[in-house]
Specification:
With about 160 residues, the protein is mostly helical. It is about 80% helix and about 0% strand. It is elongated and about 60 Å long.
Length: about 160
């Protein structure tokens, strides 16, 4: 049972971080392939980002549940669990902020610009706001990735301090 639970914990981390690492590659390829249709590429990437966030929220909740139960099931020592849990909560907070704060604001800007932000003058305040949100989105995703890497390190440390280790 302990092996199954640790496997699920690692799987949740792998899925979330793997998607975070792979997403920028997919976005770059999408925009590169659809060079003349940046609105279409942006729509595709936006939808993929929503899927990424959904996966992240599910993985984060699974991680929190497993980390919370790990000491009771003698998988990890109680003192080794709070730090990774805090990082997962921060990752979830960043994911929720991007999903429910940044993306809707970007969609409002896109609609205000007439549906295609790339055809709007770059000096337009709507375009400038959209670009600022896009930049913020990139920083938030990078923060999620870095927090995830730190979480992996802390879970590895917890693994080395397991009760039966």
């Amino acid at each position: 049972m302990k092996t199954l639970l640790r496997t699920l914990l690692y799987l949740a981390l792998i899925v979330w971080l793997g998607a975070e690492i792979f997403f920028p590659i997919v976005a770059a390829i999408t925009f590169g392939t659809l060079q003349g249709a940046t609105h279409t590429a942006g729509s595709i990437v936006g939808e993929l980002l929503r899927i990424l966030h959904g996966m992240g929220i599910v993985c984060g909740l699974v991680l929190l549940a497993l980390l919370a139960l790990a000491p009771a099931w003698h998988i990890y020592k109680p003192r080794s669990v709070p730090a990774p849990m805090v990082l997962v909560v921060l990752m979830l907070g960043c994911t929720a902020y991007s999903q429910y704060g940044i993306i809707p604001a970007m969609e409002r800007d896109r609609a205000a610009a007439g549906g295609a932000i790339d055809t709007t003058d770059s000096t337009n305040p709507i375009t400038a706001h959209f670009n600022m949100l896009h930049n913020r989105s990139e920083h938030v995703e990078m923060a999620i990735l870095l927090l995830g890497i730190a979480t992996v390190s802390l879970v590895a440390w917890a693994e080395s301090t397991r009760p039966d280790a």
